[in-house]
Amino acid sequence: MSTDTSDEQTLAPARSRTHTWGAPVRPGAGILKMTGREILQAGIDGRFPAAPIMSTLGFRFTEVGDGLAVFETEHGEYLYNPMGSVHGGYLASVMDAALGSAVMSRLPAGSTYTTTQLSLNLIRPVFADTRPLRVTGTAVHVGRTTATAEARVVGIEDGKLYAHGTTTCSVFSFPSA
Q1: 95, 107, 155, 156: least surrounded by Cβ within 10 Å?
Q2: Is 0.85 surpassed by the pTM of this model?
């Protein structure tokens, strides 16, 4: 058994990360009268608190349109997997947010959605020093009970494609408040 440790790294001091979040929006009487796009815009405008997952993972919602949702990443080494790159589940989470929000932006008042299928293609790795990424979701079909969307993850500065994917969502009425 070899005792050569020349390839082992010395353990660095522990790091920490703190985040805060507002209480999540609950579907009360007021929100039930808003379209999906109005709800999403209220979140961007700060009239509703951001979804807690955004501060937990480090991404922000920057734009909403008819069938369009755009997020930007604030990734770092706190998202690393054992191989030393940002975990693919991080991109899956941000893409799921963009895909679902693109669908939600086309939903009428009183409706919401849930992801039923998510498919991703991770093209290149993301590291802590990778410049911010833009995740753009676009609704392809939004029907009464199902919806589909596609998304792309692109470097804001370099224009490189990092990932792309699709979703299928179930569409339904908000549960009673």
Answers
A1: 156
A2: yes
